[in-house]
Amino acid sequence: MDADQFRQAAQSAIEEIIEHFNTLPSRRVLPNIEPGYLRPLLPQSPPKSPESWDQIQQDIESKIKPGLTHWQSPHFMAFFPALTTYPSILAEIYSAAFSAPAFNWLCSPACTELEIVVLDWVAQAIGLPECFHSTGPTRGGGVIQGSASEAVVTVMVAARERMLRDLATAEGLKEDTPEWEDRVMVLRGKLVAIGSDQAHSCTAKGARIVGTRYRTVPTALEDNFDMTGESVRKVLEECEAAGLIPYYITTTMGTTSTCATDRFAEIKAVLASRPSWQKIWVHIDAAYAGAALITPEYQPIAREWSTGIDSFNFNMHKWLLVNFDASCLFVRNRTDLTSAMDITPAYLRNPYSDRPDTVDFRNWQIPLGRRFRALKIWFVMRAYGLSGMKAFIYKGLHHGDVFVELFGGRKDLFTVVTPPAFGLTVFRISDEAAAAAGSASGALTRQVYEKINADGDIFITSSVVGGIYVMRVLSGSWLSEEKYVRNAFEIILKTTEEVLSGKPNGAEGPKN
Amino acid sequence: MDADQFRQAAQSAIEEIIEHFNTLPSRRVLPNIEPGYLRPLLPQSPPKSPESWDQIQQDIESKIKPGLTHWQSPHFMAFFPALTTYPSILAEIYSAAFSAPAFNWLCSPACTELEIVVLDWVAQAIGLPECFHSTGPTRGGGVIQGSASEAVVTVMVAARERMLRDLATAEGLKEDTPEWEDRVMVLRGKLVAIGSDQAHSCTAKGARIVGTRYRTVPTALEDNFDMTGESVRKVLEECEAAGLIPYYITTTMGTTSTCATDRFAEIKAVLASRPSWQKIWVHIDAAYAGAALITPEYQPIAREWSTGIDSFNFNMHKWLLVNFDASCLFVRNRTDLTSAMDITPAYLRNPYSDRPDTVDFRNWQIPLGRRFRALKIWFVMRAYGLSGMKAFIYKGLHHGDVFVELFGGRKDLFTVVTPPAFGLTVFRISDEAAAAAGSASGALTRQVYEKINADGDIFITSSVVGGIYVMRVLSGSWLSEEKYVRNAFEIILKTTEEVLSGKPNGAEGPKN
C-alpha cells in the first residue's frame, strides 16, 4: 500500500467510522450471532497474494460489524462505560504512525516526557494530593498502564518486594546472598493481600499472579457494601493470629457491583494503629468512579489521600472520554516501583539510563515496550477542556438521577438495592411484586435480566451482592442522552411486566 | 469535536503522516534534545476551555516530533525493528472507533473470534505444528499479548500453577483447603525458573514478578552463545542438588544480543531424560527472529516443536509489518492458562461464559480488558499477502548479508563476533586495530558506539556478550533500503577511523 492508496483508504475508513457513529443509535447494541459465527465467513488460510483495500474494507461491514458489541451505543447500560471519542481516535492514528516500543527515555523521549506532563495535568484535574504529582515532595508520579488489572499486579509486586526487603533487612540479612533468597522465599509464603468481597476480581487474580495468599474482608448491605475500618481490623487480626503477614490492601472508590466507596478515613485509622500495619501498601482502585473527581463536588474525597495511601488508579478509558487503553496509575514514591521492577541488562543501558533526571517507564510496569498512549490523553484534555470534561461527567450523573426517579416511581415493581452512586442504579424486582407473581425476587430478577439481554435492544449487567441477585444500569456512553435512559426504563418496565404476568408483552426496539 | 471537524482533522492528520514518512529519511533518527526538553514547552495545567484541532495539531510538529526517536527511519539500526505500516495504521483507526474492553466473548464476539482465526492464519504462515493451532489435537491456540514480556509472565504463572497443582495433588492434598494453601506456599518457595545468560531480561523480571527463584544457564562464545543441552543438564542438576524444583525454562530463537538460537533438540532430550524434568514448562521466545519462520528456509526449525514445547511467542510488531502491540503467544494446551488465570465473579458471568465453544480471552492473560488487536494482523496479512510478507523478510536478511560483506572487507578494523543471523551483525574493533591505536578493543568499541549515537545520524545498540563489548547493527525498518545499509557502514567506518586516529574526521549526515 503506497501513500496514495493509504490516503484514499484512510478517507474511506474515516467516512465509514463517521457513518458508524451516526447510525449507532438505530443498531442493536448486542450482536445477533452465535459463538463460532465468524470462522465460516473467512478463508481458512491467509491470502498468498496482496488484496486491495476495497476487498478488506468490505469485510468490516459484512463480517466484523455483525459481531460487535457496541460499547459506544447509547443503549449500552452494562458494566461501566468504555468510551471512545473523535480526538482520542486522532491520537491513536498518530500513535500508530510514531510506533515505537518506547521502553527507555532515549527510545522516544517525547513519549516518556509527554506522559509525565499529562499525568501531572490529570492529577491536577482530579484534585489528587501533591504526593502523586511528579513534581511533588515524595518522588511520586503517574504512569499509564494498559488496564486497572495490570496496575494492581504492578503495585502488588512493588508492595510485596518492599515488605520482604523491610522484613529481611530487619533480620540483619544482606541482599543478593543465598541466605537472603532462602529467607525471602519463606517470608513470601506468609504474605497475604487483602480486599473487600466487593473489590474487583483483579485483586484476587493479582494475588494469584504475584504468588501470595489473599483474604477478603466481608461487607454488608447495612453498610452499603462499603469496606469499614472495623471489618478491616478484624481480618488483619485474624491474619496475624494465623501467623500471616498482611502486605497489601485494595480499597475501592466505586465498586464494580454497586459503586460503593470504602471508608478511607476509618481504614487509615485502623492501619495507623499498629506499627506492622503501617507498612501495608494501600492502593485505591477508582477504575470507573475516579473520573467523577474532575468535578469540584467530589474532590474532597481525594484530599483524604494526602497521607497513608501508596497508590491510586483510575481508567480514563472508562468514563473520561479517552479510548481503551489509558489506565492512570499514580504512586506516592516511584522508588517502590523501580526497586521491584528494574532489571537492566547491558543492551538496555545508554548514557541517559542512569541519569537522575530521566525516567525509564519500563521500570514502572510489567511489560518492557509501551505504546505512545499519552497522546490521546493530551488530545482529549485539550479538545474538551476541563469544562467539557466536567460537563460530560455531569451528564452521566444526571442520567443516574433520571433512572433513580423512574425506578422510584414504580416502587410496586422495583426495589433500588443500594444508594445510587456515580450514575449507577442497582435494583431488583420488589418482594411485593414477586410475591404477587408467586415467585422469589431473585429468580424473577434473573429472568428479566436474561430476557432483556436476549432481546438485545439494551445491554445491562446482573450481579449478586450480599446474596441478592440484582440488575445494574448505567448510562455513560459518549452518545448517551436522557431519551435513551427513558427508553431503557420502558424496556425494563415492559420486560418486567411481561415476566411477572408470564406472557409476552411486545417489548419495543430502541428509539432513535 | 463534531463529525465534520473530525473529518477535517483526520484528513489533515493523514496528510501529515504521509509527509512524515516521506521526509523521514532526511530527518535525524535520534532526537537532538536533552532530558526535560518538553515540560517548558507546555502549559503547566490542562486548558480550562476546549482548544481547536489546529492548535493541537501544530504542537505535533513543533513539540512532539523534535522528541521522537524514529524507529521507522531507514537509519534506525538499533535493538530490533519495531515496524508500522499503512494497513496497520488503518486497523488502529477502526480499533479505536470500535473501542471495547472485550474481556468476554459476549463483550464483543468479533474481537475474540477474529483473534482466533487470524492466529490460526499466523500459525499456518510460520509453519507452527498443529498443537499450537486452535483447531489442533491438544486444545492449543494463540492469543495476542501486548508484549513478549507480558507473554512470558503469563506462561510463567501458568507453569508455576501447573507444577504446584501436580506436586500438591501427588501428596494427596485437596484443592481449596487450608492444608493445600500452606503446602503450596512452601513448595512455591522452592520453585526455580531457568533461562540462559543470553535470554531476554524479561525472564529474570518475570521470575521476580511471579515470585520464584531464577537461575541462569551459562553460554559460551565457542557455542555461538547458544544454550546447549549439557549446560541445561548441569544447571538442572545443581538446582535439584540444592533442593530446588525447576518448573520453567525460556529457550530462545534469536537472542537479543547476538540472535543466537538455543539447541532445542539437545535441550528437549535432556528434559526428557528424567520424569521430574518432563514436567518443566518449555517456552520459546522468538520475539524478533520468529518472523523469519514465514520463509520456507526457516520452517524446519519449527517442526521440532511438535512435541516437548509448551508455548511459543513472537512479536509481529517487531519485524512482521504490524505496529506495536501484537505479540503472538501460542500454547499447546489452553487449559494450562485458564486454570491459572480464571477468576470469574458474578458480574462477569453471562449465558455464554460457561459454554465450551466460547473463549473468554481474559483467562489467557494478565489484564481483564483487551483492545481489538486482531484487526491489524488481519489487515496486514491481507494487504501484503504471504508473498509480500516473505519478500519483506528476505529484504531484511539481504541487508544483513550486505553488512557482513562490508565488515568482512575491513577485517583490519572490524571483527565480526558471532555468526550473523536473522539480519543481525555483531562486531567490535579488531584487536589488531586496537593494538595499533594503543588501546583495548572494548574501550574503543564503546567509544565508537557512543560517538555514533551522539552524532545521531544512525542509531545502533551496544551490548556485552561473554565479557566482550560489542556493537550490533540490523536494518529491518519498513523504509530500509540497501543504500542506507551502505551509508550506515560508511558512518561506522569513518567514526572508527576518527576514534582510532584520535581526531575528528567529519562523519557525513544521512543520505536520502
TrEMBL record, chains A, B:
Cofactor(s) it depends on: pyridoxal 5'-phosphate
Family assignment from sequence similarity: Belongs to the group II decarboxylase family.
Presence of keyword Lyase: yes
InterPro entries reported for this sequence: Aromatic_deC, PyrdxlP-dep_de-COase, PyrdxlP-dep_Trfase, PyrdxlP-dep_Trfase_major, PyrdxlP-dep_Trfase_small, Pyridoxal-P_BS
One CC-aspect GO term: cytoplasm
Keyword Hydrolase: no
Taxonomy, superkingdom: Eukaryota
GO annotation (BP), single: amino acid metabolic process
Any Pfam family matching the protein: Pyridoxal_deC
Source species: Uncinocarpus reesii (strain UAMH 1704)
Protein name according to UniProt: Aromatic-L-amino-acid decarboxylase
Modification N6-(pyridoxal phosphate)lysine, positions: K318
Keywords annotated in UniProt: Decarboxylase, Lyase, Pyridoxal phosphate
GO MF term (any one): carboxy-lyase activity
